[in-house]
Amino acid sequence: MKLSEFMENRKSAREYRLKNLSNKDLKKVNEILKEVNEKANRYNINYQLFEGENIYKPLRGEGGYSGVMIEAPGYISLSMKEPNDESYIYGAYYLEDIIGKLSEIGYGTCWVSLFSVSDELKKDVFGTKDKIDFILAFGIPVNYILKGDSQYSNRLGLEDFIYINDLDTPVDVETLQNYGLDEIFYYLRNAPSAFNKQPWRFLIKDGKIDLFIKDYQGNVNLTDSGIVMYYYEKLAEIDGINASWDLNVDPCVETDMKFIGRTNF
Ligand SMILES: Cc1cc2nc3c(=O)[nH]c(=O)nc-3n(C[C@H](O)[C@H](O)[C@H](O)COP(=O)(O)O)c2cc1C
């Protein structure tokens, strides 16, 4: 499936066929994780596959938004050896890479937050002292759109999160078209974010794009940033743009928002 099509239709899946994963399924997912782990290891990140009930039962009432744990035939843990800003950002970045690969073999997915789960319980469940704040539930979805789910799925208009020259000037679609950025952002706005907060704000200035986070809440927003950074690069690639984010520069304007990084376009 083309990335644009995937982004147009992507939705978190919260209900799955609860059949155990076969050895063949496990092998396929492990191959994906091996490939992505090789890229992600330099950020001290590791992804590991777990079979459903080993995770769901102990985390029921504990993991997920307000303890609403998502039941799935499989889970992938995102663990960080030495958690820091980069590992939250790139942990999310590469988890989206995994999500795309899982979708190619027919799986739906949903991020599951584990902030409210005690470190002790996480250590027992995942068998590691590494930091695990998020896991990914995956499987064959039975019903993509659940009743009441739309509260999680609304998206901001492009003019609500993209600015031009300064943070007081929302972009208009014509300007985005002139820059050749309209399609990238049209699809990028479907990126998932915790509580669907869509905290990312982009400022186009002097031939570059700065990424900021509104109402910054720490690690969870670094995670949301990693996700949009991933999709920006991948969508730009389709348009022949070799984009990459620089996290070690200063923001191009002064603002109360948290600055994450800058990319070319
Ligand atoms: C970092 C992160 C944590 C999330 N945690 C949860 C969670 O614990 N439970 C849940 O049901 N959805 C969770 N989600 C899914 C988001 O709520 C969902 O992506 C967002 O509401 C947009 O909906 P959509 O993915 O269907 O487009 C999480 C997403 C992200 C990016």
Question: Can you describe what's shown?
Answer:
This protein has 265 residues and is of the alpha+beta class. The protein has helices spanning 3-9, 23-40, 52-59, 85-104, 119-126, 158-161, 173-179, 182-188, 219-238; strands at residues 45-51, 74-80, 108-113, 131-139, 162-164, 200-205, 208-213, 245-246, 258-264. The strands form 2 sheets. The chain has a 5-stranded mixed β-sheet. The chain has a 4-stranded antiparallel β-sheet with strand order 1-2-4-3, sandwiched between helices. The longest helix is centred in the middle third of the chain and has 20 residues, at 85-104. It is globular, with a radius of gyration of 18 Å.
Uncertain residue segments? none
Taking all Cα atoms into account, the compactness measure Rg is 18 Å
> Between the first and last Cα atoms, what is the distance in angstroms?
24 Å
Mean pLDDT: 95
Largest sheet: 5 strands, mixed
Note the topology.
Blueprint: H1 3-9, H2 23-40, E1 45-51, H3 52-59, E2 74-80, H4 85-104, E3 108-113, H5 119-126, E4 131-139, H6 158-161, E5 162-164, H7 173-179, H8 182-188, E6 200-205, E7 208-213, H9 219-238, E8 245-246, E9 258-264
Parallel strand pairs: 5-6
Antiparallel strand pairs: 1-2, 2-4, 3-4, 6-7, 7-9, 8-9
Helix pairs in contact: 2-4, 4-9, 8-9
The structure holds flavin mononucleotide.
Flavin mononucleotide binds at residues 11-12, 14, 64-65, 70, 110-113, 134, 152-153, 192-196, 220, 223-224, 227.
